Amino acid sequence: MNAAGSRTQSVRRGAVTLAAAAAVYELIARSGIFPAALVPTLPAVLQTLWSMLLDGTMLTHAFHTVYRMVCGLALAIVVGLPLGILMARFRAVEQFFLPLVSVFMPIPSLAWVPVFILWFGLGNTTTILVVFYAATFPMVLNAWTGVRSVNPLWLRAAGAMGAKGQDLFWKVIVPGASPFIITGVRQAFLRSFVAVVGAEIIAASAWGLGWVIFDAKEFLNADVMLASLAVIGCIGFAFERLVFGSLERATILRWGMVRAAKS
Amino acid sequence: MADHVATANGRAPTPGTPATLWASERLRAIVRTAFPFLVIGGLWELVARLGIFPPRLFPPLEEVAATFVRLTAEGILPHHAVETVGRLLAGFALAAVVGVVIGIAMGRSRRAEDIFLPLVSIGAPVPGLAYAPLFLLWFGLGNVGAILLVGFVSAFPVIINSWTGVKAVKEVWVRAAQSMGADDQRLFRKVILPGALPYILTGLRLGLAQAWRILVGVEMLAAVPWGLGWMIFGAREFLNTDVMLAGIVVIGAIGLALEKLVFQRLERYTVVRWGMMTS
After folding, report:
1. Domain A38-253 adopts which CATH fold?
2. I need a labelling partner for A64 at 20 to 30 A (CA). Which of B162, B163, B164, B222 fits?
3. Into which CATH architecture does domain B65-272 fall?
4. Which residues of chain B make contact with A198, given a CB cutoff of 8 A?
5. What's the pLDDT tens digit per position in B19-63?
């Protein structure tokens, strides 16, 4: 069997599974074992999703969530990437920051939410800072590991050919560390996505997908919750596949640093 | 990730150095590790004393320490911590058992893979806490909803890694074992399971880390009577910043202990000893 054939087959099987899962859910929802407010039927969820998309509320919520996440993530990259590289290049920086990183990293970012609320109030500042806290550590650790794991042979080869300082850094170290750095950005994104939704749920502000889910619970609007969950899933999927997938293709895959997965 | 931290920190003294030199080396390492915390503590103290923020919101360190000692002596803090760890273990045990079974089944059987892979790849990217209101709605406030949610969320990395691990077992090993007459059961126990174990352990480790991150948030939402997350969240109402910071210290300590005591040790006794991975 050729590759394309097995691929369409697995797509078809996946679709069959999802259809079956949807049918089971629909059956449970219609059977009336659970109250309809808690387990809404799929057409009801789709209708809610559609109407929220049409009147623009869903897009506003999604915009706020993405805005906070991107701000926090950008801040984390701006701080974490240079810090990680400096830690790998200078021993003093490493000795100062490494103990701090290893102690603060195991504290879940959400534990800071109540403290940040007291310090900065409800709203964007708190959420962005929580995202920043969550995303910085993977960024720092991966940049640090990446620079340290640059093949020493490359450094010596470049040095023997007369590269030093700036050239060595930009042409050898940064591309050499790039697989780790991109992994770091990816992990930072995943963490920040978790953090932004959690922070929105706990530090209820006026907008945001996390907030709308939590708010819907008060009114037993399970259809709104499921619709927002679908949107959250789509955003995560879009970032993961489109943004990071193309980032990877444009950099480390093209440079031959890693191979694409076979399947 | 964190294992790099450990190996870089724990530079073993070279064998053969005289004992006195070793002791001073150790002392230097301790001072070096403590130094950044002294700097941060000093800065904190400075900001707290200068009165830029109200002292209720930004208490000096000795106040936090006093609160920590008081809450520990009264048994409040240990009670919260025990409940949190219990919930973590219950949720994670659920995730470990279900996740490893599903993951291995997906790796071994084509049919299981077709059934579970679409569900897993849809469920995994959604942030765990987004499921929280739904779980609380379905299973009620309290322990049941919280534990189920923690289990559900932390099962994903376990499933994905176990599945990858079984798939990554070298075909040559399987064929070699088969040609030497291993039946299905022995093939599974002696070849596939040890071969997949590094991945499974990585999955468990990621799952536990995920469970830990989610649990603190869940405790804030699920209105459980005890638990560190709840303690921190409840302290907000009374502006007890010292209680919150004491809680965060305990949370950090538990997180660090999980990483250093549980997983690095587990790894050393299994996959490193079998030569599957270098430490």
Report:
1. MetI-like fold (1.10.3720)
2. B222
3. Orthogonal Bundle (1.10)
4. 127, 129, 217
5. 677 778 888 888 888 888 888 888 888 888 887 778 777 888 888
